[in-house]
Amino acid sequence: MGLTVTEKIISKHLIEGEMKPRSPIAIKIDQTLTQDATGTMAYLEFEAIGIDRVRTELSVSYVDHNLLQSDFKNADDHRFLQSIAAKIGAYFSKPGNGICHQVHLERFAVPGKTLLGSDSHTPTAGGCSMLAIGAGGLDVAMAMAGEPFYLNMPEVIGVKLTGSLPDWVSAKDVILELLRRLSVKGGVGKVMEYFGPGVKTLSVTDRAAIANLGTELGATSTVFPSDEVTLEFLKMQKREECWQEIVADSDAQYIEIIEIDLSSLEPMIACPSSPDNVVKVKDIEGRPVHQVIIGSCANSSYRDIAVAAKALEDRSIHPQVSFEINPGSKQVLENLDVSGHLKTLIHVGARIHQSGCLGCIGMGQAPATNTISLRTFTRNFPGRSGTKNDQVYLCSPETAVASAITGKITDPRTLGEAPKISWPSDYIINDIGIIEPPADGSEVEIIRGPNIKPLPKFDVLPDDLIVTVILKVEDNITTDHIMPAGSKILPLRSNIEAISEYVFSAIDPEFPKKAKENAPVAIVGGENYGQGSSREHAALAPRYLGVRLKLVKSFARIHKANLINFGIVPLIFANSKDYEEISQGDTLIIKDIKQALLSGAKELEVEIKDKKKIKAICDLSERDRKLICAGGLLNWAKQKLSS
Ligand code: MIC
Ligand code: SF4
Known about the structure:
Blueprint: H1 5-13, E1 14-16, E2 24-27, E3 31-35, H2 36-49, E4 58-62, H3 72-88, E5 91-93, H4 100-107, E6 114-117, E7 131-134, H5 137-144, E8 149-152, E9 155-162, H6 171-182, E10 190-195, H7 204-214, E11 221-223, H8 228-236, E12 256-261, E13 268-270, E14 278-280, E15 291-294, H9 302-311, E16 322-325, H10 330-338, H11 341-347, E17 351-352, E18 372-375, E19 391-394, H12 397-406, E20 434-435, E21 465-472, H13 479-482, H14 486-489, H15 496-499, H16 511-518, E22 521-524, H17 537-545, E23 547-552, H18 557-565, E24 569-573, E25 587-590, H19 593-598, E26 603-608, E27 612-617, H20 622-630, H21 633-642
Parallel strand pairs: 3-4, 3-6, 4-5, 6-7, 9-10, 9-12, 10-11, 15-16, 15-18, 16-17, 18-19, 21-22, 22-23, 23-24
Antiparallel strand pairs: 1-2, 2-8, 5-20, 13-14, 21-25, 24-27, 25-26, 26-27
Helix pairs in contact: 2-3, 2-5, 6-7, 9-11, 9-12, 17-18, 20-21
C-alpha cells in the first residue's frame, strides 16, 4: 500500500512503535525552535537535564513575543536567551528579526525533516513540507538533548484541493472554511495533509498560512507536498540545495478525504470569540470597525502585506480606523521597502510596527472598549487582545484592507478589480538578525537577570490521591483561560512563583489562594480542555499551586502532554454524564492510584466523597504513566540520563 507524505516522513524518523493510527510512537527530531515566552523555561529545563550542547541538526531560539520592554524583565530574558543559545550551540534570532514561524519558514525549513517547536503554530513549516509539531518547552528541551518525541501515531486526513482561488479570496479563506466545517476540535489526533491539483496554485507562504491555522482545528500538524512551487520558494531563499520532491503515492490511504473546490470559495471571517465561529463576510457586512491589523504568524508574509499596500495605492484609510501592519519578518519588511509597498503604506497613514507577535498575544494594540477589531491573526479567544469583552474578528488580508478603507466590515469583492502583486526580482535575503553559535561554547557566560528564577522541584505521585475540586469549567477552555498572556503577565514567564498568581485569573481570581490552601486540588472540565497555546506554564503554574488531577470530557493534545510532563494526572470521564455529578468543593478519592497507573489500568475508580463512585479513563502510554508517577518528566529524565 502506498504512503501519504506524513507517513513517508514519519517512517524515516520512526524510533519506537508502529505506524498504526493512535498507537504510541517515538520519532527522531531533526530541528527545534523556541520562542522567548516559552523559551526561557525550555532552556532552564535543558540546563537541568545536564547536557552541554544541543544534539539536533539545528536548533533556533527566537525572540518575538515579549518585545515590549516596560522594565528590565523582557530585556533580561533576551540577554539570557542570546547567551545560552551561544553556549549550547543554537542559532539566535534577535528581537525584531521576526516571528519564529515566518523566519523559520524562510531561512531554515527543509522538506522531509521533522521540527519540534515550543509554540503551537510550529506546523506553519508544513507549508514547506516539514512534519512540524508544537509541544511544551520540556518536550523541546528533551529533543534538543537528542531524545525522541513521543506522540500517538496521527490519523491522516486528506484535504483534496481542486480549482484555483477567485480574485480577492486567499489562503486564509481556505482554512477559515475548514474551521467552519470541522470546528476547533475537528483535527484532534489528526494530521491534515493537502493534495490534489489545487495545491500547485498556492505559493509556499499561502500553504504556510493554511498549515498555521491547522493548529486551530486541534490538529497535530498539517503537511503539504514538496513540489516545484516549493523549489521556487527555496530558490528565492537561496536554499534550493535542501529541496527534494515529496508527494503522496497514488494509492496512499487517507482516513477520510475532505474536498475543497478553491474556485467556489468566498471571503470568510471568524466572529468573536473563537476561530471556528466562521461566516461569509458578505453575511455580516456593515458592522463598524475601529482597528484593522495585518500580521501574526498566519498572515504576515510579503504577499499578505503587499496585497494590502497595492489595494491602497489609489485609496485611503477610513478616518475612524487605526490601520496597523505587523510584518512577519525583517525579510518581509526589507522587501516591502525595495518594492515600494512600504512607501504606500506609510503614505496612507498605516502604523508600521516592528516584526513580531505584538497584539496577537496582547503585547500592545489592545482595541478600545466596545469596538470591533479586524485582524488577520490566528486566535480571537475572549480577552486575548487585552481588552475585556473584546470583539475580535479573524479574516484575510484582503478583507482586512477592504474594511480599513470603508470603516466597516466589507466583502473585498465590492472594491472592484483585484490587486495583482509580483515578487521583486532582486528579492533581498539578509541574515543580519540571525546569530550563529560559536563552534565551542565552553567560554560563553550565561547572563541571568533577577527575573530568571530557578525551576520549582516537584514531589512524586502519592500512593492514594485525595483532592478537592476547586474549579469546574465548561467546554473549550483555552490555555489563555488557564494561564493568560498579555503585557502584564508574559514578562513573568521565567518566574513560576510570580506567574502562578494569575492562573485562571479571568475565571476565578481567588483560584491561586484556594489552590494553595486546599492542595492537593483538582479541576473538572468539559470537552477539548486546554485548546490553544503550547504554553507549559498552563500546567507548570497550576502544578506549583497544588493541582494534581484534571478530570474532563476530553483534552487538547499539547495541554494533555504538558500535564503529564509536570505530573498532573489527566483523566477522562468514562461516562460524560458524570460531569454533572461533581460540584465545586467535592472531594475526589482515587485509592492506590500509583499502583493502578504502573500496572497499566485503563480505567480508574474515582470516589466522589459522600456521593458515589464513577469511572474515569486513563488514556496513557507506559511512558506517560512512569512520568506521572515520578512527579514529572524532569525528575524522570534526570534519573534516565544520569543512569
Ligand atoms: C499563542 O499564540 O498563544 C502563543 C503565545 O504563541 C503560544 C505560545 C505561548 O503561550 O508562549 C502558542 O501558540 O503556543
Ligand atoms: Fe506569535 Fe500570535 Fe503566532 Fe502565537 S499566534 S506565535 S502570538 S503571532
